[in-house]
Amino acid sequence: MKFFVDTADVAEIRELAATGFVDGVTTNPSLVAKSGRKFLDVIGEICDLVPGPVSAEVTATDHKTMLSEGRKLVKIAKNVAVKVPLTADGLKTCKALSSDGHMVNVTLCFSPGQAILAAKAGASFVSPFIGRLDDIASDGLGLIADICQIYANYPAFRTEVLVASVRHPMHVVEAAKLGADVCTLPPSVLHQLYAHPLTDKGLDQFLADWKKTGQSILDS
Ligand code: E4P
User: Fold this and answer.
1) Which among 58, 81, 102, 159 is least buried, having the fewest CB atoms inside 10 angstroms?
2) With a 6 A CB cut-off, is 131 part of the ligand 1 pocket?
3) What is the pTM of this model?
């Protein structure tokens, strides 16, 4: 499973990239607004930091303008994946950009039927938002199961399932059990994945016992 990080905070991405766990980045207009920075500058800097796909979202809603925006975004760097919403115009734009050889991430997916359309439009990634479904008492991980099952039936579909709107580590674990290709993680969830109280407790005990030996590996 690949890990993308879901943030437009360049300093945070720099720090996370150093862990070696960051295979790509997703941004959206809300995350860019939160950064308070110029969109194109932010995407350029992220693409320099992370060699994998960096999703940059169009903000037009009509096909013609979306396509122009997408063509501008892909000029920033080779690893830009143009993010388009799962609308009729978005899918038309996906088809045009992917036919030209560009990566496209179809976002705001909330149903298996929508995911089929994204695959047929040649998307590199489809982003089902599982946390937002859970928020309305629907089954986010059930959607991932459905999409993985459907895509597995059609080897000609090359679209990767990019689990989005992830809220906690168990979303990641369950999505991995289902065979999802990618999870995009808020930085806090990536940090939470490391944590286990028995790891902390075990390490404290080992270090306390080691101290009693009076030894040092480096001085031996
Ligand atoms: C993914 O590409 C989206 O930017 C993101 O996962 C949305 O998450 P949210 O529901 O926490 O805003």
Assistant:
1) 102
2) yes
3) 0.96
Each residue of 49-90: pLDDT tens digit? 999 999 999 999 999 999 999 999 999 999 999 999 999 999
Q: How large is the average pLDDT for residues 15-42? A: 97
Residue nearest atom 10 of ligand 1, based on CA coordinates? 165
**Domain spans of the chain?**
2-213
Closest to 4 in 3D by CA, of 52, 56, 46: 52
pLDDT at 62: 98
The protein residue whose alpha carbon is closest to atom 5 in ligand 1 is: 165
Q: Is 78 exposed, middle or buried (0-12, 13-18, 19+ CB in 10 A)?
A: exposed
Please tell me whether residue 1 adopts helix, strand or coil conformation: coil
In the chain, which ranges are E strands?
A: 2-6, 24-26, 54-57, 80-85, 103-109, 125-128, 160-163, 182-185
- Class of the CATH domain delimited by 2-213: alpha beta
- CB of 105 shorter than 6 A to ligand 1: no
